[in-house]
Amino acid sequence: MVILEGRNITKKFAGLVAVDRVDFKLHKGEILGLIGPNGAGKTTMVNVIAGIYAPTEGDVFFKEKNISGLKPYQIGRLGIGRTFQIVKPFPGMTVRENASVGAMFGARGKGRSARQAEKKAEEILDFVGLGDQMDVRADQLNVASRKRLEVAKALAMGPDVVLFDEVMAGLNFSEIDRAIDLIRKVRDSGITILIIEHVMRAIKRVCDRIFVLHHGQKIADGSTDAVLADENVIQAYLGKRYKALVG
Amino acid sequence: MGNYRLKNYLICSLILLGMMLFPLFNNNFVIRFGTDILMFAIMASAWNIIGGYTGYASFGNVVFFGIGAYVTAILMEKAGLNFAVAFVLSGFGAALFAILIGLPVLRLRGHYFAIATLGVAEAMKALVQNLELTEGNSGIYLPMLDLSVKSQYYFFFYMMLGTLVVTLLVTYLILKAKFGYSLIAIREDEDAANSVGINTTYAKTMAFALSGFFTGLAGSIYAYQQAFIKPGPVFTVGTTVKMIVMAVFGGIGQLFGPLLGAFCIEIISEVLSNYFLAIHTLFFGAVVILAIVFTPKGMIDIASQKKFGLAYFLQNIRENRV
Hints:
Distance between the termini of chain A: 35 Å
Strand content of chain B: under 5%
Radius of gyration of chain A: 18 Å
Number of helices of chain A: 10
Number of helices of chain B: 15
Largest sheet of chain B: 2 strands, antiparallel
CATH architecture of the largest domain in chain A: 3-Layer(aba) Sandwich
Oligomer: heterodimer
Number of domains of chain A: 2
Helix content of chain A: 40-55%
Number of domains of chain B: 1
């Protein structure tokens, strides 16, 4: 079943076409990767889905409902959570309060009291591995923990779909491994994932399918193995050296 | 935890009791001085809702004070309504204005918002100076309160005190509720707040309206107390600056910060003008600067942490200044 679909999505900034007539489908329960070189339009794509920008043309459908043009908070309440590439914690709040805000106002927030939201937040923080830092102020966290908090805030909303925008950027090897485990755990809990990532190791290990953007256009779409072997993708993004490495 | 809360309730009750008994032991001059402190405490606390918790530093909050004053004056003098009705309508009038002006102006952030609100207040002053309804620069006389002199002083003191208590109580309840979380989330990161499902436009506008409501109430009492108002003094930017200085001095985004700030600032300013009448504003400025540099979190932080001394000051400066 298709849970999130983009049809002919185009986003122009004045003369620049950041996203150019892109179609994609996200099936319930899968992890879809979105890759491409810097400036390809990946984050713009996520911002269009999340309602930061309205698409110039085309439409986004969530559970068969057209959500293009809705405000970010409306989309959040419908059940799409997102993380920001440049993390956006509420710096002066504790980790617990950060996640509580997600639990209060997200898809499952209605009818939840502040106290109940706090309970939910603690559950989620345990789930993402921040259980022992709940009383720390968000601006005191290290990079890996901030990324986790970003995930926790999105999950606390009780979403059906989450958009992960480079949640692994800036992490070291062992942190990436733990992040991969976390993403799989999120999927196993029944949440569908769209993930933007540059870390190929992670892409290969978590994604069921991938689509590739280049200069705003979709140049490939399919199973992870097939797309990574695609000549166009290697030319545009992965580079010849990558091909040599994989053989 | 329970003990701690009990202690806080006890302290609050004692302070309130002290304030309630205050007029009984003082002469008219001191009561009037106390009334002024309370008035500024209301306005600084109301400013705290939008400026402190929501993070939108309004430089035009005096406009709500002025609207409150003028609504009361017009309703009582021209429509012949009694004070109770005019008082309540003044609050709602200011809140309504906050909503109307907030919808466009709250789209701006940071300095732009500050400048826009400053402009709104100045424009409103010019409007009031030129309208027939407000009798322009000649001002409006209000009906006098028909009580003995002593009772009048009591009346205005307790009106201000009651309004202040309601302002602080409402702020407290907001902070406990989800609405309070949404305001603080907006202050901390508005885009992130929007993405987690907070209707930021609604929350900001409501915060601005509440801020306007209580400031309008203060304006209403002020107008009745003065019995004569004119645009210049009522809409002066100085009043906004005072609200902000008090809130910052006492502790921004802290429930009792603005109250403490109003108390300290009024007393410092009174003492200084006693000793150095001509140049007291100079000393006053210096005191404010020193306080803000050395205690950026406000006086309330020192009072509640019970930490003094050099180490605390250095830590405070490190955490908040560098």
